[in-house]
Amino acid sequence: MELLDFARGPALQFALAVFVLGFLWRIVSLFLMPRTKDRSAARPGTRPALFAATREIIRRTAPDKAFGKHSLFALVNGYVFHVGLFIVIIGFAPHIVFFRDLLGVAWPSLPNNVIYAAGVITIASMMVALVRRFLNPVQRLISTLDDYFSWLVTFLPVLTGLLANSHLWVRYETLLAIHILSVELFLIWLPFGKLMHLALVFVTRSQIGTHLAHRGAQI
Amino acid sequence: MTREINVQAAANRFLAQISGNLGAYMEACLHCGHCADACHFYAVTDDPRYTPAYKLFPMARTYKRSKPPLSWFGGAPKVTEKDLQEWEELLFDSCTMCGRCTMVCPMGIDIASIVAASRQAFVAAGLGPPDLLQAAENARDKGSPLGVSADVLADRVEWLADDNEVDIPLDKEKADVLLTVSSIELMKYPDSLVAMAKLLNHAGIDWTLSSKGYEATNFGFLSGRSDIAKIMIQRIVDAAESVGAKTVVIPECGHAYGVLRWAGANILGKPLPFEVVHITEFLADLKRRGKLKLKPMGDAVTYHDPCQISRRGGATQAARDLLDGFATDFREMTPTGNHNWCCGGGGGVQAMSRAAGLRHKVFKLKMDQVEQTGADTMLSACANCRLTMDESKEHWHWDKDLGSLVEVLAEHIDESNAAA
After folding, report:
1. Does B32 touch chain A (CB under 8 A)?
2. How many Cβ atoms sit within 10 Å of the Cβ of residue B271?
3. Which of A2, A76, A125, B196 has its CA 20 to 30 A from that of B145?
């Protein structure tokens, strides 16, 4: 079996299975834990929990006033690579074909040069994020293996994808296989580390939103 | 002094408190470090150890080691006695549980709640600042952290009532409102009780103090002694029930408000049989209803928001409503309201003598804030903030005045037009 066939066949099936089961397991195990009920009397006029949760999910997308000047650069950089990743994953024509085959839905693609530019910017932005993690005393102190490994498994698909798209390094089929395998590594790791923030962000923002709204403390 | 440290007891105590809510927060940290900038202890020291996310590390590791699927991958390194010793300072001395870090957290992690749970774990392990723990035990054994027993309370009430010619009802059989006091006020700022009495009498409120439950502060909560926290809350519940009070008023104390108003029912495991309001909320309501007549005050004043009343309490507006139309030269500081900087002494840090140096450093933020407003006086509505700031003011020989909002209001009661 060619490497590409392996990557597109059994490896993909395995990775998707681990991703789906791991993702469900992580979420279900969290929601199976008993959740504390707030018995304190809500401040009169409190909005419904659903409103507070939705508001907080949206509100926290923009930086708070208490944001320190030190973090501003990191904050902007964070937006850059998240948006860059999103454009590359969702906008690239071959990716859309992959999603169509997998999920049965498709959408218009972005021009190749836009994807290319977004990929290069994402690579640069992620490099900056890594350098900051090494150099900034706060981030260096609080970084764990999960932080570095999650960075790596996110970085590799972007790098290999960019190389494959540029027809650089080794032959295209091999690069494509490596790219797909790197995506599979990303999928396999996602449910087990910090990449799970993809889903947890909605849980924790909802929690703090409803918690503070109950008190009438809208921060 | 060497202390026996029981790492397993810490783990057990922490894991026993884990709920789905706390679990989600424990799993969500991205280690972005933005919380450092929002923390006053980091802001004044640039010491990365004071990063709020870092303070959670031992208990985050304990949690991750315990929970699949993360535990399948070895979870995280085992927490050691040395870790707990090192983190004691970070969870007690250098966290006021002010919640400012949560404001900048992209995930919205309630760090202060995890610190509160971690403190319980540390105390179970045999750690915790001795003076803070002593304050909690004093509260349990004597009625108050500063040793204000029911007898001392009666003596002081009698003295204050006589000296100030004000009626301070103690142990009335029935009353609509039960007033509580903070022992910091009774011992260091007794005028505060006089001021509350004058204002409540002026508005014609049917109120009383009760020797069954008078201490508003809850050092059980702050020191991680949940058993004492519960005792202190139960005393107030018993007092309110015995006088038939529908409303319990918390004096100028932030954490007292936070604990009884928002944690009280959860600690007892059932709803409180009365409404809990902070004195600023109670007075603001009286003012709205025209029952509080005040003569305007022209002094240049600014207002320090106690974290547990504003940011985490939801009563930010009450002080503004009181100042509106009364303080004719009121100047907001920057940042203010829910974004205001902490005094540095909340969360029991005021009671830790070894944290004094750190608190004084934090006060520099406040001095800068006040000086930028050009105000001569900084008012607050928390005796704990006031004591913290008074000590730091003395340390720095700072020339601005600090005052209590309630006392200033009481000094400006307009008796010529008293409520019927």
Report:
1. yes
2. 12
3. B196
In whole angstroms, give the CA distance from residue A187 to residue A184: 5
Q: What is the CA radius of gyration of chain A?
A: 20
B208 vs B190: CA distance, rounded Å: 17
User: Where does residue A3 rank: exposed (0-12), middle (13-18), buried (19+ CB within 10 A)?
Assistant: middle
Q: What pLDDT does B420 receive? A: 43
Q: Which residues of chain A lie closer than 8 angstroms to B33, CB-CB? A: 71, 74, 136, 138-139, 142
Of B384, B380, B394, nearest to B352 by C-alpha is B384
Half-sphere exposure of A136 (CA within 13 A, CB side): 21
Residue A69, domain member (yes or no): yes
Q: Which residue has the tokens 């960019």?
A: A162
| Contact between A204 and B270 using a beta-carbon 8 Å cutoff | no
Q: Print the domain residue range for A162.
A: 3-27+47-215
Same domain, B171 and B219: yes
DSSP assignment of B143-203: SSTT---HHHHHHHHHHHHHHHT----BS-S--SEEE-B-HHHHHH-THHHHHHHHHHHHT
> What token pair was written down for B60?
């985050």
Interface of B with A in 305-364 (CB under 8 A): 310-316, 335, 338-339
Tell whether A23 is within 8 A of chain B (Cβ): no
Q: Is residue A34 part of a domain?
A: no
A15 contacts: CB under 8 Å, gap ≥ 6: A183, A184, A185, A187, A188
User: How far is CA B342 from its chain centroid?
Assistant: 11
Chain B contact present for A54, CB below 8 A: no
User: Considering its fold, how many domains does chain A have in total?
Assistant: 1
A69/B314 CB distance under 8 A:
no
Chain A, 112-171: which have a CB under 8 Å from a chain B CB? 136-144, 147
Q: How high is the ipTM of this complex?
A: 0.95
HSE (side-chain half, CA atoms, 13 Å) at A137: 11
Q: For A36-46, how does the pLDDT look when each residue is reduced to its tens digit (9 = 90+)?
A: 889 999 999 88
Is A110 domain-assigned?
Answer: yes
* B316 and B392 assigned to the same domain: yes
Sequential pLDDT tens for chain B (420 residues): 567 899 999 999 999 999 999 999 999 999 999 999 999 999 999 999 999 999 999 999 999 888 876 677 665 678 999 999 999 999 999 999 999 999 999 999 999 999 999 999 999 999 999 999 999 999 999 999 998 999 999 999 999 999 999 999 999 999 999 999 999 999 999 999 999 999 999 999 999 999 999 999 999 999 999 999 999 999 999 999 999 999 999 999 999 999 999 999 999 999 999 999 999 999 999 999 999 999 999 999 999 999 999 999 999 999 999 999 999 999 999 999 999 999 999 999 999 999 999 999 999 999 999 999 999 999 999 999 999 999 999 999 999 999 999 999 999 999 885 444
Domain that holds residue B175: 131-285
Smallest CA–CA distance from B58 into chain A, residue: A142
Q: Is residue B154 situated within a structural domain? A: yes
Chain A CB contacts of B312 under 8 Å are 212, 215, 217
Q: Considering its fold, how many domains does chain B have in total? A: 3
Tokens of B322: 């009181």
Alpha carbons A128 and A168: distance in angstroms, whole number:
23
Give the model confidence (pLDDT) of B174-198 as tens digits: 999 999 999 999 999 999 999 999 9
